[in-house]
């Protein structure tokens, strides 16, 4: 179930008061969207970045720019192992340039070094989606090498089973439901606001001392 809807932009195109507070609490960290192919990381990420007035970066696009070829071409010519190594390097470089909204490839969060960098330099949000929603979305795309051959439904189901527990390690989980991208952005903003509020309350209210 998605998080409760957050408030929209203030009149005049700026950020609303809750969003300004969120940015203050975010500091130099990145908002990192993780999840399956078709979860809407890029579409939601672009709109989220616009709402917050932050730069948006797509890790897959940056990998293609660094390699000088498309991701399917990298898979075909260099293999998945080399792709994942390059993906990790690009991810760490992007994370060091925060604050940004960063959309990751479906397998990026599987790498332990990448997860550690995300934990250190960002706030991770798993955009979780039902298999049916994912399948409808990925069928519109032809640039996903891991789904290029065979039955996409079967492959997606296997990927989700293999990756779900790792995605669940993200700081937050928001359902990328069958709704408008703006509605999902509202859910992400609400979840982030709650996350930072709880952290602020925890820092402001230390545990009582056991000393007499």
UniProtKB/TrEMBL annotation:
The keyword Nuclease does not apply. One of its GO terms (biological process) is chorismate biosynthetic process. Mg(2+) binds at residue 42. Keywords: Amino-acid biosynthesis, Aromatic amino acid biosynthesis, ATP-binding, Cytoplasm, Kinase, Magnesium, Metal-binding, Nucleotide-binding, Transferase. Its EC number is 2.7.1.71. Pathway: Metabolic intermediate biosynthesis; chorismate biosynthesis; chorismate from D-erythrose 4-phosphate and phosphoenolpyruvate: step 5/7. Monomer. This is Shikimate kinase. It comes from Azorhizobium oxalatiphilum. The gene is aroK.
